[in-house]
Every structure is written in C-alpha cells, then in structure tokens.
Amino acid sequence: MNDTQNKMRRRTFIKGLVSSAGVTLAGCADSDLPTYGNILRMGDLLSYKTHRMLLPEQSLAREYDYSDISAVPAIGTTNPGNPNRAYFNPQQGPVYERLQRDAFANWRLTVEGSVARPGTFSLADLKRMPPKTQITRHTCEEGWSAIAQWTGTPLRAVLETCGVQPNARFVQFYTYDAIADGIDMRDALHPQTILAYGMNGRDLPIGHGAPLRVRVENQLGYKSVKFLRRIVVTDEFDDLGKAGLIQNGWSWYAGI
Amino acid sequence: MSEASAPPITGESSARPAGHRRWVRISHWIIVFSFLTLGFSGVFILAAHPRLYWGEVGNDLVPALLEIPLSNNHRPEGFEQMVSFTDVSNTAVSADRTYEIFNQNGWGRSLHFLAAWFLVIAGMFYVLTGVFSGHVKRNLLPRARELAPASLWQDIKSHFRPQSGMAVGGPPYGLVQRISYAGVAFVALPLMFITGLTMSPAVTATLPVLLDVFGGYQSARTIHFFCFSALVLFLVVHVAMVIVTGFRRQLRAMTLGS
Q: Is B92's CB within 8 Å of A145's CB?
C-alpha cells in the first residue's frame, strides 16, 4: 500500500471518529439511538458507534472447555410467577405460572413485526431446527462472571424462517416478567446469538429463564433476556418505555 | 542536590521561563477531572460486587480472593439451596438469589465510560505531544546513570524534609518525581485502560489475546482494582508534596503557567 492510500485511510478513519463524536454530542436526530439530551446516554452512544466501527462483525466470543463450566448464580427475576418479587408482571406472571405447571407444553413463542411470515413456535418446533451448543462466559454488569454450556436455536435461523424485511433494524424481546429489551440486527444475526432452551445438558432451569432465553455473547449478561414469550422485529429503535433499559437509567448497548 | 535534579539542558528549555507548558496544563486538568470521576463511579461499580477473583470466573457461589467491605451485597444465606447440574462436575451448581442488592451501575457504568473517553483522549494527546516535543525524554525519563540505589535513596529521603519554595513549579523534576510521573503516564494509566478493555465482552471477542495476557476476565478486574489503588496512593503523595512545597504557587504554575 502506498503513502497516499495510507493517508486516505487515516483521513476516512479520523472523519468517522469525528462525525460519530459530532452525532453523539449533538444528540442528532438521524442517529439510531435516542439520547434524550442526557450526557450519559451520549457517552453510551459514542461507545456503541465506536465499537460498531472498529470491531469486526464476525468476531466470536471465546468458547471454553467442558471442564471450565462453573457455578452460576441466578439473579434478577428467578421466577416470573412469584408475585412477591421485583419485576413481577401482573398480566404475564399468572400466565407463566399456568404454563410452568405442565412443563411449558402449551408455551409458544410469537415472532411478528417486520417479517414476511409472522409465526408461533412451540419448544418442539425450536428443538427440531438445527441446534447450536456453546460454552461461554456470562459476564454480569454487577462484576461477577460464570461459565456455562448453552444449547438452543440460532436466532438467525428463526428470523430467516419468518423472512426478515429488508428495512428491519432491531429485534425486541418481550418476556413473562416486567422486562423487555432489544438488540440491533447485527447482534441478532450473529452466529453465537441463540434462543437457548438447554443449559449444561439439561432443560433451562426456571431461575435461568425457562423455557427460553436469548444468549447475546458479545454483550453483558443483562442483554441475554430470560423468559421469552414474544419477538418483534422493528424498523425503528424502540426504547420499550418503562419495561426497557433506557427509561430505567441503563445503557441500551452493553458490549462495554 | 547534585545529580538528583539535573539542570535544564539544551536550548529550548533554557530559553523559556520555568513553569508548565500550556499543553501540559490542559491535559493535566482534563486527566485530573476524568480520573476523579472514574474513581468516584468506579467505587460505586465495585460496591455492586465487592469481591475480587483470579481467572475467568468469579461469583457469589465461589470463594473470593479478596472481599472489600464496601457493601452488604455478598450474602450466601440469601441464596436458595444450591442445585447441581446432573451430568457435569460437582462444581457446576446453581442457586437463586432471593434479595435485592445495592446496585447503582445504571448511571455508574455510563458515567465511568463517559469519563474514560475524556481520559483516553487527553492521555493520548499528552503521551503523543510529550514524546514528539521531547518533553518525555528531557524531563520525565530518568537517565540510566541516575538510577543507582544511592541516588534513589538520597532523593526519597529528601522528600521527608521538604522546604517550602524548593520546587520551581515545573521541570526540571527530581528523580523520584520523574519515575512516578513516567510510571503514571506510561505504566499505570495504560494498564487501567487495557485491563478495562479486557472487561468488555465485545472487545475480547475481537481481541481474545487480552484474556490470555491477564489470565482472564476476573484477573483483569482484580489488576484494574490494584492499579487504581496505586494511582490513589500516587495522588495522595502528589497532593501532599504540592502542599508542602507551596500549594498556591504550585497551583498557579499548573493553571496560569508561572
């Protein structure tokens, strides 16, 4: 590569950095994520944009050996059917309680939104699709970590079955507790992003999100939402109101 | 004081009055405010899980290397009975937490990373300008012949009987001063940055070598903490020396320049 090319590259790189900083500081309307004029959210957006610009799309989180599997605490919601805990959802909690009684035989995952063929999936439907098993590190924002083996269906395969529309950009997860969250299409199509129904060779325990949770291995644990019931593909960013992270004062992007 | 504080050398620095240059003053204060913000938010982040470990794994169900009494978040009795995963080794257990912890990581983490942006940009500006202007070579790096144990000991001793007005408020610096400034700029702060990156799941997906260098996610977190402790020790001694050598004059030198 000659000197001019080098300079051009450097210039494009610097331009990218500057424009991403500009977008962040101005809280500009054409950016993907809202900042609500909050300086903390502007910092989150700057980190998100920088990660997306500098880190290659195909990077895989480290996978470990079977012997590395460790103790794993279950935190946050450990049973959506328990009305005495934080994040209890008065509409969905009792539904979860009923589904749990017959081992989730009547549980269905709904996939809708910006897809050609909206549909519902039973656990058996998901288990019929080619499974992916991975031993990865769960890294909690609190500061602890654990290694476990997860088995599930790649989210990409489910989205391809439903036919994602070309202008779709986000995938939102709705659950049986009072939490909802979403990821961008790049993370949704990542080969390690799976809808996990198995943990350490068994069915996913209730404390860890039975019957189905998402695993987003390139972000912190709180993005791997538990107790899934509904997936909505959207063209626009949705902060999910009081159920979402941003209105609760948390960073939507947690790759850092 | 013989070799311990070498006289100013070469044309450029002898031609200008004593004091700190503007780029040093600007980056110094940006680094100060971002470091204090990082320390403040960092203490809150640590309080959410004030246990340190070595390796990749560490959580409430495994023993800690060190527990710091910052919060009451580690309550083994607050977990339901441990359940073993049947077909894996007996260390693979799970237990449900039944209590709410102290957790301010929502704003804590976002503030930490926002301040880190300022520190990284000001730090890179300082290091690059310092290297290319010759400031680092001229004023910070100790010369090999000064590093004899006797002269080092001599300079350390002199710090215990300081006199007001003995420091000029800018280079030339004493031997211990050079070693500690260079250590902060080229060892401690870069190590904070790199161990911080090693805690990012997205960064280690691209650069898994970072996990190997530090021995795992939890090791990087532990090194991050001890490196912070060393920087706090530096800050305490640094501010103490500023006070005993003339607080107002030193402060003026680092803000107005002389």
A: no
pLDDT of residue A3: 53
- The answer to whether residue A254 sits within a structural domain is no
A72: part of which helix (H) or strand (E)? strand A72-74
Q: Tell me: pLDDT of B6 over 90.
A: no
pLDDT at residue B68 above 70? yes
Cβ of B49 and A146 within 8 Å? no
Query: Which DSSP category does A35 fall into?
Result: -
Residues A38, A116, single domain; the answer is no
Q: How many CB pairs under 8 A join A and B?
A: 170
Q: Are residues A36 and A148 in the same domain?
A: no
In angstroms, what is the C-alpha Rg of chain B?
23
Could you read off the pLDDT of B247-256 as tens digits, one per residue? 999 999 999 9
Verify whether the Cβ–Cβ distance B113 to A143 is below 8 Å.
no
Whether residue A41 is found in the same domain as residue A97? no
Q: Report if residue A48 sits inside a domain.
A: yes
Q: Do A250 and A132 form a contact (C-beta atoms < 8 A)?
A: no
Q: What distance in Å separates residue B51's CA from the closest CA in chain A?
A: 8
Domain co-membership, A176 together with A212: yes
User: Which of B51, B96, B202 is facing A78, going by the closest CB pair?
Assistant: B96
Domains of chain B by start residue, with CATH: 11-255 (1.20.950.20)
Q: Do B58 and A144 touch (CB under 8 A)?
A: yes
Provide, rounded to the nearest whole percent, the portion of chain B with pLDDT above 90. Answer: 72
What distance in Å separates the CA atoms of residue B229 and residue A171, rounded to the nearest whole number? 41
User: Is A53 a residue whose pLDDT tops 60?
Assistant: yes
Are A71 and B111 in contact (CB < 8 Å)?
no
Bigger pLDDT: B17 or B132?
B132
Same structural domain for residues A25 and A137? no
Dump the DSSP string for A89-155.
Answer: -TTHHHHHHHHHHTTTTT--EEEEESBSS-EEE-HHHHHHSPPEEEEEEEE-TTS-EEEEEEEEEEH
Q: Is B164 exposed, middle or buried (CB count within 10 Å of its CB: 0-12, 13-18, 19+)? A: exposed
Structure pTM? Answer: 0.90
Residue A111's CATH number:
3.90.420.10
List CB contacts (< 8 A) between B103 and chain A: 142
Q: Indicate the helix (H) or strand (E) that contains A230.
A: strand A228-234
Let me know if residue A161 belongs to a domain: yes
- Are A40 and A133 part of one and the same domain? no
Q: Same structural domain for residues A87 and A142?
A: yes
DSSP structure class, residue B200: -
A222 and A161 both lie in a single domain: yes
Question: pLDDT, tens digit, for every residue of A125-184?
Answer: 999 999 999 999 999 999 999 999 999 999 999 999 999 999 999 999 999 999 999 999
Q: Which of B62, B103, B211 sits opposite A70 (nearest CB)?
A: B62
| A42–chain B Cβ distance below 8 A for any pair | yes
**Residue-wise pLDDT tens digits, A192-231:** 999 999 999 999 999 999 999 999 999 999 999 999 999 9
Domain with A49, as residue range(s), is: 3-54
Of the pLDDT bands very low, low, confident and very high (cuts 50, 70, 90), residue A28 is: very low
Domain count, chain A: 2
